[in-house]
Design brief:
Number of strands: 5
Structural class: alpha+beta
Shape: globular
Oligomer: single chain
CATH architecture: Roll
Strand content: 15-25%
Radius of gyration: 18 Å
Length: 117
């Protein structure tokens, strides 16, 4: 037996799905990938901010990714980069930005170049 949905039922289903969380696409590159043990995942995130997401993500040894990547003042450590929807997060406390359904977060370690000649 096939179940039929009217527009009211579909609206109620969509509202309950979005009230349960936001779909966030997360990519970890370079050293961050090694720390987490994976490179890409989609999450149903029930928090609000980017910092809350980083606090919920745990490393291979059970530590919060936030504690590894973020200074005490709330700024991302110099050896890491965080991008939200193809834009770098640079300023102190900018991790308090609100995430929306469908956002793409990319976290990577910095590339270090050796000068010489």
């Amino acid at each position: 037996m096939q179940k039929r949905y009217n527009s009211e039922t579909l609206e109620a289903t969509q509202q309950s799905t979005t009230s349960q969380g936001k779909e966030i696409n997360f990519t970890a590159m370079m050293m961050v990938r090694e720390i987490l043990g994976w490179s890409q995942k989609k999450f149903l995130f029930t928090g609000e901010t980017l910092s809350q997401l980083l606090k919920q993500l745990t490393t291979r040894d059970g530590k919060a990714l936030y504690g590894i990547m973020v200074e005490e003042n709330g700024a991302v450590k110099k050896e890491y980069m965080v991008w939200l929807n193809n834009r770098p997060i640079k300023e102190e406390h900018s991790l308090e930005i609100t995430l929306n359904n469908g956002d793409r977060v990319l976290v990577t370690s910095m590339i270090k170049f050796a000068a010489g000649g």
